[in-house]
Structures are given as C-alpha cells and as structure tokens.
Amino acid sequence: MADKIEISVEKGLLEKTPANVLVVNLFEGVKIPAGATGAIDAALDGLISKFVIGKEGFDGKFGKTYLLPTHGKIAAEKVLVVGLGKNKDFTPNRIRELSAKVIKKCQKMGNAKKVISVLHGAGIGGYDPEVSARMIAEGTFIGCYSFDKYKSEKSPKKVDEFTIVDMSDENCKKAKAGIKKGKIIGSALNFARDLSNEQPAYATPTKLAEIAQDLKDVETKVYDIDEIEEMGMGAFLGVAKGSIQLPKFIHIKYKGANPKAVQRKIAIIGKGICFDSGGLDIKPPSSMLNMKDDMSGAAAILAVMNALKDLKPNCEVHGIIAACENMPGASAYKPGDILTAKNGKTIEIDNTDAEGRLTLADALCYACELGVDEVIDIATLTGACVVALGSTVSGIMGNHQPTIDKLIKCANSGGEKMWQLPLFEEYADSLKSDIADMKNTGSRMGGAQIAGVFLQNFVKKVHWAHIDIAGTAYIDKPYKEFPKGATGAGVRTLINYIMM
Fold this sequence. Notes:
It contains 15 helices and 19 strands. The protein is an alpha/beta fold. The longest helix is centred in the middle third of the chain and has 29 residues, at 169-197.
C-alpha cells in the first residue's frame, strides 16, 4: 500500500522555498551546474561544483545520489543531488525510475517530511513539462509503495509532501496537469499491486467480485455459478470444480465520457486464478509459493476500470474476469476429462495445471459477443514465456498487427517492455486430440505460442491481442523502480492504449 503523500506544484524560487530536502540534478560528466541546479550551487557558494563534483568526484551517473547540508544558506535544510545519466540516454521513463529512487532515499532519511524538487527533464530533449511532471508523480507513487498490511509494526519513516517548484507560470500550469494524470496512473498501479500481493485467503473470487461491484461510474454484472453454467462456460467451470471457493464471472462496463459519440469499443480480459495449486497435476512447493499472483491479470483489469472514472476516455471499455481457484479437491477436473467451451469447442484435458487458458477461452467467447472492435487479454499464462523472455519482458501475440504494434508502443511509453511472439499454424499440431477438438496443452517447446494458438480458437470477428505477463507480474528481486513483489504489469500499457 502506498503511503499517503501530497504531490503538488508551486511557483517560486527553489532557494527560498522551505523544505527538509531539496532535490536537484546533474547529467553525467557535468562539471559546472547550470539551470536550477546552477542557481542552487551559486546560493550555496559553489558547494555542488567545488565539493560534490570537484572534491567528492560525483559523476552524475544515473541513479547516483549525494546528500549535503545547506548550513542555512537556502531555505531547505538539505540538498539531494541526483544523477540523470548521459544526456543522450535521457527519457521520460528514466524520470519515473529516478523519481521512485529519490522518494525511497528520502523515506529512509526519516526526517524528510517535506521534499521539494526541480522539474526533472522539462525542456530537455523536447519533453513537455506536463510529461515530466506526470513521470515524477508516477515514480513517486511507485516509490512510496510498500505492502505492510500484515506487519504489526509499520515504518514511521515517510514523506508527507512532495512539491515541484518552478518559476514559470506556463511550466507550473502544465506540471499540474501532468501530476493529476500521473497520480491517477500511479494509484492504479498500486491498486493492482495491492491485490496481487494480497494473501489468497483474502483475494478470493468473491472478493474480486465485491471490489468490482464497488467501482464508481461503471456498470458491473457478476454471474454466479448457475448463471455461468447457463451460459455454457464448461471450460471455466471445469477449472473451478476443485475448490470450495465458488467461481465468479465479472463483467464491468464503462460507457465512455460521451456514450453517444464513442469511437472505439474495447474489451480487456484478465486471468483471474486467485490461487493456482496446479490442480491434480499439482505443482511442487517451490512453484506454488507465489501462485497468489496468478490473478495479476484480473488485478490489472480492476485497476484500469477503476481509473477510467478519472481519466474519462471517450471509448466504451468492457473489463472481464473469470475468477476461480485451481485446487485438487474431491470434485476437481482430471487429466482425460473433456470440457466444452462456450462456443461448443471440446477440450481434452492433458494437464490440469494449464488452467488459465481454459478460463480465458470462455471469457474470450463472451467478449466476442459484446459487439466490440478489439479484445485484449492479459494473463500470467505460461512458464515458457518466462524461459523465452525472462522476468523483465512480457510476451505479446495476436491476429492483428496494427493492434500489436500500438500495444508495444504504449508499453514502451509506459516503461514496460513487450516482445512479439509468432502464432504460426504449425504450433497447432501439438494441440491435436484423438477424442476432442483439441487438447489444452501441447509441446513444451514453443509453449507460450502454443497457448496463444489455443486461445485463438475462441476469438471470432475481432482484433485480438494476448499479453503473457507470467514473468513480469511478480519479481523476486528489485528491478528499476520496483522492489520485490507485484509490479502491476500491464496497467500502464492498457491505460495508455485506451487513452490513445
């Protein structure tokens, strides 16, 4: 959960603005600070240029920091000098990452209740102050996050206020707009991280349904087990049978800022396996440890749908989640069972641990019946994707290249990485069954793509993209702006895509 922090913009002189910490920056290799940092250096009688750079050898490499006292020469008590790295490598994504590192550094100080900062990146490389401020706000929200809900002792160290200070009226105006959007996206990201980090005893299918029903400015319909059966979702119900937790099929609809003039209709689907034991093909303990995160796709959908009321895009968006657990109970589906999906396709169960694609199959059928133009599903689907792309890149595939290209572009601008994998017809051969239309698993080789080919059987007359976040949804060690744990993978990409 993110600490409560107030992010704002204030017109004024940095050196005259009271704060516990003032954040300034330096590009790599700079010997004489310029701009806002140069003004602070002058006010400090050259302390940055002569001491930090000259004597201490601060080189401005990305992410490096140096904290120095001001001895009362300016209104701030301390100055934190941060390295921006090489000018040629500077991007908005680096502002976000740097801002997360800065707020974490300030939190550790313990006495940095109010932090003020220059508007990192404004005017550099053509970046608009609004973009820079948005990245600062996103990074600050990401950096403030920690999941300490179940710890009896909370850390008392936190930052209460973070203020961007600038002398330009125009910069301040644009920065305020950027902060507003950055806070929405940062909050959405942390919303998803909270759900994915939650214990599985809390984040049940019923709880996800309750959260969906509490969302504002959307219409939410939750289908219970009898209604799911009536809709013919045999693949989804097959997975759910082994758990005492009842399945919930969730449909959230946002009508658009002006429903009579919407230009696009999009369905976004999130895999909602609230805990994945593997079913009767049970996972080894080490593989099961973080399976509470197997609903990270669903968490992303709930986060995005929650943010739409504030972002107000003028498009129709349907958020869809087939939520259940995959457990080895007495009624669990078995290898060799035949399940019938919503579109009538029959599926021979080869492995009960390939359950996500079964729930997504029925969700895809449902989405394609909504009259939408585009369907995007996001899922922690295959270990094969992790083997192929690692823990920092999500896989993407689909039936419409322009849609895939746009999603990759939106991922890049959001600080996420995606790589397209092919959906060649040859992959379908290993899904052939002697007794049904298909099996739910095929060869281990090319497993991520085979899963994509399986899903394609349930897509009809829409542009479709499948995003595999198995490696990126939950990380085992810190990476860039994120600590160990849930990352909210896909939230920024989907928001950017919807807002195009």
